[in-house]
Amino acid sequence: MVLSPDCSKALAGFSAHRNVRVANDGLLAMRINILREFSMTGRHFLHVPGPTNIPDRVLRAMHVPSEDHRNPTFPNLTLPLFKQLKRLVRTETGQAFIFPSSGTGAWEAVMTNTLSSGDKVLASRFGQFSHLWIDLAKRHGLDVIVQEEEWGTGASPEHIQAELEKDTAHQIKAVMVVQNETATGVTSDVAAVRKAIDAAKHPALLFVDGVSSIGSIDFRMDDWKVDAIITGSQKGLMLPAGLGIAVVSQKALEAQKAARANNPLRRVYFDFEDQSKANETGYFPYTPALPLLYGLREALQIILDEEGLDNVIARHHYLAQGVREAVKAWGLTLCAKDQKWYSDTVSAILVPEGFNGADVISRAFKRYNLALGAGLSQVAGKLFRIGHLGDLNELMCLGAITGAEMAMRDIGIDVKPGSGAAAAEEYYRTNGK
Amino acid sequence: MVLSPDCSKALAGFSAHRNVRVANDGLLAMRINILREFSMTGRHFLHVPGPTNIPDRVLRAMHVPSEDHRNPTFPNLTLPLFKQLKRLVRTETGQAFIFPSSGTGAWEAVMTNTLSSGDKVLASRFGQFSHLWIDLAKRHGLDVIVQEEEWGTGASPEHIQAELEKDTAHQIKAVMVVQNETATGVTSDVAAVRKAIDAAKHPALLFVDGVSSIGSIDFRMDDWKVDAIITGSQKGLMLPAGLGIAVVSQKALEAQKAARANNPLRRVYFDFEDQSKANETGYFPYTPALPLLYGLREALQIILDEEGLDNVIARHHYLAQGVREAVKAWGLTLCAKDQKWYSDTVSAILVPEGFNGADVISRAFKRYNLALGAGLSQVAGKLFRIGHLGDLNELMCLGAITGAEMAMRDIGIDVKPGSGAAAAEEYYRTNGK
Amino acid sequence: MVLSPDCSKALAGFSAHRNVRVANDGLLAMRINILREFSMTGRHFLHVPGPTNIPDRVLRAMHVPSEDHRNPTFPNLTLPLFKQLKRLVRTETGQAFIFPSSGTGAWEAVMTNTLSSGDKVLASRFGQFSHLWIDLAKRHGLDVIVQEEEWGTGASPEHIQAELEKDTAHQIKAVMVVQNETATGVTSDVAAVRKAIDAAKHPALLFVDGVSSIGSIDFRMDDWKVDAIITGSQKGLMLPAGLGIAVVSQKALEAQKAARANNPLRRVYFDFEDQSKANETGYFPYTPALPLLYGLREALQIILDEEGLDNVIARHHYLAQGVREAVKAWGLTLCAKDQKWYSDTVSAILVPEGFNGADVISRAFKRYNLALGAGLSQVAGKLFRIGHLGDLNELMCLGAITGAEMAMRDIGIDVKPGSGAAAAEEYYRTNGK
Amino acid sequence: MVLSPDCSKALAGFSAHRNVRVANDGLLAMRINILREFSMTGRHFLHVPGPTNIPDRVLRAMHVPSEDHRNPTFPNLTLPLFKQLKRLVRTETGQAFIFPSSGTGAWEAVMTNTLSSGDKVLASRFGQFSHLWIDLAKRHGLDVIVQEEEWGTGASPEHIQAELEKDTAHQIKAVMVVQNETATGVTSDVAAVRKAIDAAKHPALLFVDGVSSIGSIDFRMDDWKVDAIITGSQKGLMLPAGLGIAVVSQKALEAQKAARANNPLRRVYFDFEDQSKANETGYFPYTPALPLLYGLREALQIILDEEGLDNVIARHHYLAQGVREAVKAWGLTLCAKDQKWYSDTVSAILVPEGFNGADVISRAFKRYNLALGAGLSQVAGKLFRIGHLGDLNELMCLGAITGAEMAMRDIGIDVKPGSGAAAAEEYYRTNGK
């Protein structure tokens, strides 16, 4: 149809889109200012590697009136949560803790409860999040033996075994492994790390950061004899941030008792014993983040009882593979050095020389309502990241792929239009049911 | 990473995705059954030409506790709504009515209030919705002169003028035009129809069905001297269905008074006078659909005061054009016969001989969580429709395009993978801001 | 503690409460203006006899994204609804219809589908809502024999039987009874009306308005051989307004077929046949009010499958009785003339000579955030009404009682403070579990 | 009306209310079991002293899709929050911190950032929450001088002054005061404590626990030269738990720098410097509890910009006074020993000898859907508490009062029915606007 002059004007280059009227009141003015600068219509495409998209059902489940967290019906909600969390990490013997915190809080909880000041721990560093965990350990007074691995690779079972074998006095109390390094899109092989520890016949605890893997990438606490696995609510669990979750083994709980008696790291908020005592009957030592607990119940039902954990993990692999096919079709490469490191929750994509990944991200956000992840620290500017975890499907991933194509072309990166989409489409078509 | 045997099995062909556990309780069982048959993870891509996607803000605005619709603060909500609806259809002199009904109810309201039993009306038929409106008029005892136009075209100003010129006795009381025929993706030129009526010097009222155009395609009630425009809440207004909206001219209100005295069509629920009397002070003759009124306030603020009506219309044109570029790249054609009929809210895409549009739709829905519109009546099976109206952006349209590409290829239609996406991407990239 | 001078000033007579700052932006200004004039903190106490309080669960259930109402999973939602509605009115043989309308629309649907122009119907009038139904029938061209009963009483089986016995030609096609007259707080005995019709050996259809009784007061469609029962969503069903519900007998459906052939009343929107045809497979002839259908599913689950219908009805009686004890303790009387007319969903309370019920209502709303129902028509000013239906409990009723006590005292009605509360408390304490 | 036999049976003593059908599926079964044991219809009356009732607007504001907390529009949300929090505690010079934690976390943050291991602090103990804070300080290795005050009184400025005057070496680094002791319903006079410190010419920092006072009871950070005030989201701020808030003075920030250099208490999660650095530009060092930030914006707008902080404080006093009038009318006494200790956010009501406060609470919860607060530690069983803070009004308080009357009478406490309600009503009627 023929557009009226006013509408044609509005369409001219579509830049007039943002030329909205000036408002003099607070919130409206803010909305209009944002609308002027950013694309704000339609659904936001959230493709950072967390926080992830929250299913509508989970949002609804959290829209609850307040209640007394000491009321007699409360354990009906909470006691099953602890059980479900154990199913999520595949443990029968571990104990789950839920803190009103982020994943960082769960890290701090595990470190401060199970170790003593000056204890030696062994940790691999190969990205921003493994770095931050090491930093946290150091700042709490632990003596961290850092194994530097090339960014784009992960924890090396060989290096770990070698270091442990050197430690004949068994001074190393714990091995820290990030299962999925969100910064580089690298998944470490935790089962192999366990084998390395066993091969070294070393009694060290095995601590795993599963923030961006739990509920998305296979994890088997009991099979792999993991002593502490931590995660946050805002990744594979498809919730807002606000819950720090730790599941710890009986061996770790023994260590906790020992640590308590001997030059302990101080903590109250994150204290396991306070929690344990209250959790036993379904309560908490202080007010929990209530709506998130309702959301957690809904999310765990979806993952464990409706879609099924194996199916969820398979879906993550399938969706990730489609994204990787797109990257290949673009002629670009991943930060992950080898297929064995490829992460099923996030792909870190290197931009060609002469371009800045931050420009892709900025363009995608402002112009196409698409949130991509940035390169951090060592890899700042060198890459952009597509998160593909949580409540996702094929078309959402294709939205991210087509958006990235447009944003890359807009800043001059020479990828063929539609090439990534075509590759992903063909993968999805021929690999799904 | 290497998948475990269980997860690999789940991934095998991804068909195991649906092989979820059997549940023996009601709602959970239903969810799992649906999950088994349909893709249910991630966001649903809703691309029928209504109901349309509801912005989160609008959903929130409707999440309100109950209240007495006769309380003294109620007019603070309602009185501005009538004014905003007039801005939406660009009238200063018309009067807006809001019924708890669908758009069909608004049709019935306009017909039964303004016409008398046996009155002659002139209507063009060129699709399922123009057909249904004619059917409604006939069933109410009106004498409808039907002008058949080829499906894929719209109302013909020439034919209308000719018919009116024949009617020297001015027995034709109203001309009925569907501005946007949702079934074929055709937009009629209402301004030209007005000119045709004027050229024929005929006093007939001009009634327009704007169900799938208002708030998306340009409409100018006063400029075009339209006597009744009707719409529903679930299209350009980005709300759930449940509000039937009619804005009528003073001339139509005069006709209503005359009709009342003379062999009237019966109605109480849809009576304009009952509404008028109560609306004057901000109330309704019976309980209104309260949450939708709060939603309407939010939606109208977005359209009129934040994005701006001209911008909204321009955006619809821009997004539609991207979809049309994709269709061209696929080597397919639209049901609309000519560019001048192209609808900016829905594209009806003809499938090649030997294929059934319904198969594309079924595949898209079950496999890719994408809802496309079906061919109806004369064009059943011959096409599928992509709705592109309401709260949309580029990546949502690209989701529909890539999903349609996959679904078409899955049933054997030979379109080049990524071709539609590439064409739309390049259009969006180079025509936006 | 000692208040600061500023806070003391704010407290002075608490009138400064409303003296909030002037805002110059739209919505905020409106909120502040309302806050200045009305009490707005805390929960609103909604005690009109509909719309009623919506349970949080039901609000959540309606907070759903949009979807295509023609998609293949849709009947999973809708087909069980028709069955549940039949359970709600205790029929095995009737057929349920759900319209996007108010209860008035359901009235119109029943009248226009089953009767022909000029048909005789018999109706009792004893309040505003029985009056409005008669008015609707007349405006549709029916010949209504009106039996005037004293306001404060209900339908008289004796009078009905007498009138029917006079009608030896069986010209009366239907008897219309309002089960619960919301304006006067009177419940008619529908079972007795059935007996009267049977005693008169008259074949007339029996139509019942159950707007403010269904889901709250016992109703037995099959036992009482009712031919049409209508209700709306915003009363006992604890939903927002927007659904008009009619359940009709096979006899009424036969009448509908006959009426269609013979001088029919016109309707399309409310046509039973269009609905029937589409409903059969779980769809609707036009877009339904989707979120309300999700809400209806939740509400019916609560009523039928969790609390249980008998329990719900018993609870309404119990809560109503507490309110009536309070009225007695105040020394006031109900509009209902006799215990047998007492409604379990609303009490209409006569104010003493010299006072205006509207002043009680206005005071309660503005000062105590309590919505009471007004006297209408004949009883305007003579009473105020406490609605006690839907999602209620003892303390909500006590909120209404204490609020009414304060409002009455504020305008000078001499009730003893706490007297109504004491009487209701003692009733609840000693009659509950 | 006459009830049917089934409904009469259901009504019999109303005990059958709970005799609902057996369900064999998970969530439904749980709901029915709860329904069988507890009153579940209607609105829950939440009258513990936190978590408090969340306004519907605030719940809506938190119902938001996920987003990247590092996106460029994010500071539009966060930067104003820090400013508004400063207005809330009436400081121009302090700095606000927001942690994803409970109030306990904010306690820990203040202690661990500003003090060094072995530092001396002075604290008054007169209830469970002052006790817990002291416990937290001790467990972090601080040397706490505990001043025991009688439960029912608060911090003694005289005792504090005396202790500080003894400390001529100025070894005491901080004075810790709980402004409102939630366990006993006692408000301490923080201004007087400040005067005592000044009178002693002591440089100690002044730390205040405002968990159950901020946003409800007057607090003036700058006027009273408070060095750290902490609160949680789930009390006067009318939000769910999940945010720990601390506002600290420049003097405290200086102390923080000093402490860092000298035998520091370890923390990372709660580190002020990490926060400061990120907060400056509107971001956080780790993922914040996003929905709560949107809720906080809405709550602060209500408190500061709509109702107004002085009005909010005055309303709390007014509502509290009504509850106290009820207690007096019952012939009971408060745990608070004297009017000067009365808390405007919670009343702890002593039950007569021979009764157990826990029985009142249990009865109120199970039978009347009313949550009251329990006696803790020293006063366990001796009292029950009515919380009256947050989003409350007169009728909500009257709901708590009438519910408490019934529950007390049910367990045999001889209070006159309606007596408390009458007293509160008369207070509200004559002291409001």
TrEMBL record, chains A, B, C, D:
Among the Pfam families in the record, one is Aminotran_5
Q: E.C. number, please? A: 2.6.1.44, 2.6.1.51
Q: Which residues carry this modification: N6-(pyridoxal phosphate)lysine?
A: K235
Q: Which InterPro entries match?
A: Aminotrans_V_dom (IPR000192), Aminotrans_V_PyrdxlP_BS (IPR020578), PyrdxlP-dep_Trfase (IPR015424), PyrdxlP-dep_Trfase_major (IPR015421), PyrdxlP-dep_Trfase_small (IPR015422), SP_NH2Trfase/AEP_transaminase (IPR024169)
Judging by the UniProt lineage, the source's domain of life is Bacteria
Annotated substrate binding sites: R385
Keyword presence, Transferase = yes
Q: Which UniProt keywords apply?
A: Aminotransferase, Pyridoxal phosphate, Transferase
Q: Which cofactor does it need?
A: pyridoxal 5'-phosphate
Instruction: Output the GO biological process annotations, alphabetical, semicolon-separated.
Output: glycine biosynthetic process, by transamination of glyoxylate
User: Could you tell me which SUPFAM superfamilies the record lists for this protein?
Assistant: PLP-dependent transferases (SSF53383)
Select a single GO molecular function from the record's annotations and give it: alanine-glyoxylate transaminase activity
Family per similarity comment: Belongs to the class-V pyridoxal-phosphate-dependent aminotransferase family.
- What name has this protein been given in UniProt? Serine-pyruvate aminotransferase
Please report the organism this UniProt entry assigns to the protein. Granulibacter bethesdensis (strain ATCC BAA-1260 / CGDNIH1)
Q: What is the lineage of its organism?
A: Bacteria, Pseudomonadati, Pseudomonadota, Alphaproteobacteria, Acetobacterales
